[in-house]
Write a structure and sequence with these properties.
alpha/beta, 10 helices, 6-stranded parallel β-sheet, 300 residues, 3-stranded parallel β-sheet
């Protein structure tokens, strides 16, 4: 079997187009422009690239984009003051504090200082609790993107057996909750799971989010299963030349693609969906803040 490739770039472009249409309606019908604020502390190169990309795409879909770039030695009090200012700004509907933060800052404290209604990353403890109890919440972007792709491919995942490999607060746990909320039967597996290969082989859906390059080989995959690879790992690639590297996922793509029914590539799979879902979450937050109907198909 040769798996269908789930094209995250194409899907993310569709999501951004939907977001742009909703933004245009909010402007035309209600005079409202959704606003997203991103706070970057320090000069981490990867974070800088990511923030630039977010800002560019925010503007492209017609939303207001605000960036606060703070020095790496910014105090906790000063950062909290910036967050509080954004919490109180009616033109800002989504707030994202770019992680990781410098080590002298308490990430949990900062994230939980964001208004839950504006927490478009879905990391606030209130949103975690709401999601865990099946209530309306802001949903973490990467798991939301995975869910959207699964719904698009399968129509319904009700009754399917799903295995999530990885138990992080950012992907693994919320992913499992979203799958449960869509009536899948869910197992959370991790590095200490006994007979991990056998657990994965029973799955109709495998979401790999463990952060280990090519950890999942093809013979772990059930024939026809759907594989969502969240991992982004950089490996040396001497075949490309001295000092060259390549990006790989948490699954061994070639062998898994021979058995799976559908699979996401790395790069070009889950990655592009994360920013698309951040934009979708901002529109959702804007609609909720103004008592308007939420956009269909852009949230869990």
């Amino acid at each position: 079997m040769t798996a269908k490739i789930i094209d995250g770039k194409e899907f993310a472009a569709r999501v951004r187009s939907q977001v742009g249409e909703h933004v245009a309606r909010l402007k035309n019908d209600h005079g409202i422009t959704p606003g997203l604020a991103v706070v970057l502390v320090g000069e981490d190169p990867a974070s800088q690239v990511y923030v630039r990309s977010k800002g560019k795409m925010t503007v492209e879909v017609g939303m207001k984009s605000v960036e606060h770039k703070l020095d790496a030695d910014t105090s906790e009090a000063d950062l909290l003051a910036v967050v509080e200012q954004l919490n109180n700004d009616p033109e800002i509907h989504g707030i994202l504090v770019q992680l990781p933060l410098p080590k002298h800052l308490n990430e949990d404290l900062i994230i939980n200082s964001i208004s839950p209604a504006k927490d478009v990353d879905g990391f606030h403890i209130s949103n975690v609790g709401l999601l865990g109890t099946g209530q309306k919440s802001m949903v973490p972007c990467t798991p939301l993107g995975c869910l959207m792709m699964l719904r698009d491919h399968h129509g319904s995942i009700s009754g399917m057996n799903a295995v999530v490999i990885g138990r992080s607060n950012i992907v693994g746990k919320p992913m499992a909750q979203l799958l449960l909320n869509d009536s899948a039967t869910v197992t959370i597996a991790h590095s200490r799971t006994k007979d991990l290969a056998d657990v994965v082989r029973r799955a109709d859906i495998v979401v790999a989010a463990v952060g280990r390059p090519e950890m999942v080989p093809g013979d772990w995959i059930k024939e026809g299963a759907t594989v969502i690879d969240v991992g982004i790992n950089r490996l040396d690639a001497p075949e490309k030349g001295e000092g060259k590297t390549k990006l790989v996922g948490d699954v061994h793509f070639e062998s898994c693609a021979e058995r799976a029914g559908a699979i996401t590539p790395v790069p070009g799979g889950v990655g592009p969906m994360t920013i698309a879902c951040l934009l979708a979450n901002t529109v959702t937050a804007c609609c909720r803040a103004n008592g308007l109907a939420e956009p269909e198909g852009l949230t869990a």
